[in-house]
Amino acid sequence: MAKQIKLKDLIGEAKSYNLDIETEAEYSEIIDDFVTLKVDRRATVTSTASNITIAQFGKTDNTKALKKILKYADSNLDVNTIKNNFDATDNERSGHDKSKDIWKYTIDKKLDFHKAKKAGILKEEYIESMDSIAIDKHLSAIEMQWLDWKRGPMTEKSDIKPAQKELLDYITRFFKKAIK
Questions:
Q1: How far apart are CA 78 and CA 71, in angstroms?
Q2: Mind listing the pLDDT tens digit for each residue in 71-95?
Q3: C-alpha–C-alpha distance, residues 29 and 101, integer Å
Q4: Buried residues in 130-167 as b, exposed as e (16+ CB within 10 A)
Q5: Which residues of 76-115 are buried (b: 16+ CB within 10 A; e: fewer)?
Q6: Is residue 113 within 8 Å of residue 50, measured between CB atoms?
Q7: Around Cβ 17, how many Cβ atoms within 10 Å?
Q8: What angle do CA 82, 86, 89 make, to 5 degrees?
Q9: CA 122 distance to own-chain centroid
Q10: Residue 44: which of 52, 85, 1 has the closest Cα?
Q11: Which uninterrupted H or E stretch holds 81?
Q12: Hey, which of 22, 38, 88, 91 has its CA 20 to 30 A from 139?
């Protein structure tokens, strides 16, 4: 019987989905460049929600080399699931021209898109399309103002809860009025 893996274990092990890169295309390009650089053989990488496929021309099977480097490229890639087309016929791989063999490798992701979304570790789509760095900077400035006040010499412990409520109400009113 297969070992049951819990979602929280995958998240800890995988650390992120697609290295926190927004699109599958950008992620594919980064893994593509990494593989090409490390294996010294041009690669084409296609990323889907649950796995990546690497295609390479050449005469030799690169399964071992790919396993070795991909575990460093992205901790979310389950290198133990690597499958290749080694058993494919010569015709399927290259049309009988060994110098043009196309090797294909499929590697599963430990945490696929749907599990990552369910776990809440994917970035927000709309916020990310805005200048989220600037938004985070301004929100952090509000947080710092709050912490400065809270630690200030004039702040009584009994003031904190009512001030917290007042600040949250103030911010909520502002945003309800400003963001329509």
A1: 8
A2: 888 888 999 999 888 777 666 666 6
A3: 22
A4: eeeeeeeeeeeeeeeeeeeeeeeeeeeeeeeeeeeeee
A5: bbbbeebebbeeeeeeebbeeeeeebebbbbbbbbbbbeb
A6: yes
A7: 24
A8: 145
A9: 8
A10: 52
A11: strand 77-84
A12: 22
Question: For residues 69 and 34, is the Cβ–Cβ distance under 8 A?
Answer: yes
Q: What angle do CA 19, 48, 10 make, to 5 degrees?
A: 50
SS3 of residue 22 by DSSP: coil
Residue 177 exposure: Cα atoms within 13 Å on the Cβ side? 6
Structure tokens at 1: 């019987």
- What are the sequence ranges of the domains in the chain? 7-119, 125-178
Residue positions counted in the chain? 180
- Chain segment 29-71, per-residue pLDDT in tens: 888 888 887 776 778 888 888 899 988 877 777 888 888 888 8
Is the pTM for the entire model greater than 0.70? Answer: no
